[in-house]
Known about the structure:
By secondary structure, this protein is α+β, with helices and mostly antiparallel strands. It has 11 helices and 8 strands. The strands form 2 sheets. Strands 4-3-2-1-5 form a 5-stranded antiparallel beta sheet. Helix 4 (75-112) runs antiparallel to helix 5 (116-149).
Amino acid sequence: MEEVLRPLIVFGGTLALTIVAGLLVDRFLRYRAERQPPRRLAGLLRRTQLPLQALLATTALHFTYPLAELHLRQDDMIRNALAAMAIMAAAWLTMRAVDAVAENTLEQYAGRTTDTARVRRLRTQLTLVRRIVTTVLTVTTAAVAILLLFPSLRTLGTSLLASAGVIGIIAGVAAQSTLGNLVAGLQIAFGDSVKIGDTVVVEGEWGTVEEITLAFLTVRVWDDRRLTMPVSYFNSQPYENWSRGGPQITGTVYLYLDHSAPIARLREHLYDYLGSREDWDGRNWNLLVTDSTPTGLVIRASMSARNADDVWTLRCAVREELLRWLRDRHPYALPKIPTAAAPALAD
């Protein structure tokens, strides 16, 4: 009877204590979150309850397992398995904690500044640093530790560590493209050339940078398509970044009109119309004749806006308004295609 009750008491008591400890930690975090609503770190750390519970349970079972006195042939293997599960739970806990700290840091910084460019830069850096911590440090350390726990794999783990230099050389030769993207990702994160949320024009496509990883960068195109490109592209090829140096931007509208077009009146109407638009920021505007051809004039209207989205809407509205105004008030100014009857051929 004791052979059955003792393991049940040991394992049941261990699990009960770890569950109570996990609930106490969660209750404390919830209490801190309610006492300090502006600071969300305690509330975000509550996401770590499940991995914390797993870590406490596997660690406690690893150390209390000998008290059960099962005397099985697989005792060492079971304890190694519990240790391996504890290491994986610790890695899981680290990932959740890093995510919570990164999100809290970004929210606090965004609340203290109105500079959206700095917020996007910090978001890009935190995203890549978080990926490095979770993938390179946590996962790699956990995998090596698990290998070293099992006697049958200890030699393999030691050999992997000892031959890291040779493996690094081989990997460097075989995966030059991947390593190049990794280095390019770090350069983008801390070089501030492109950030999450920037408006860019790449390969003729206009869109917003939606995600940056260590290998790829995703641009959400204006029609909701996703353009995925290697990060190294942005360090080796030219592209337009409309958010670089500030979100303000100047847009242009080209009109092709007849030589008789009333330029002065058209310029006055453009200014009056821009004054009625909320998406015009009032910084600058102009209307110029940029070219003259045998068949007409090339008119360029320019106007400024607060960001790329506003300038796109403003350009479309200005083009439509100017054409409507010319059609209603000065239809003779619209472009004409001269035609003439073909001369009759003599018999």
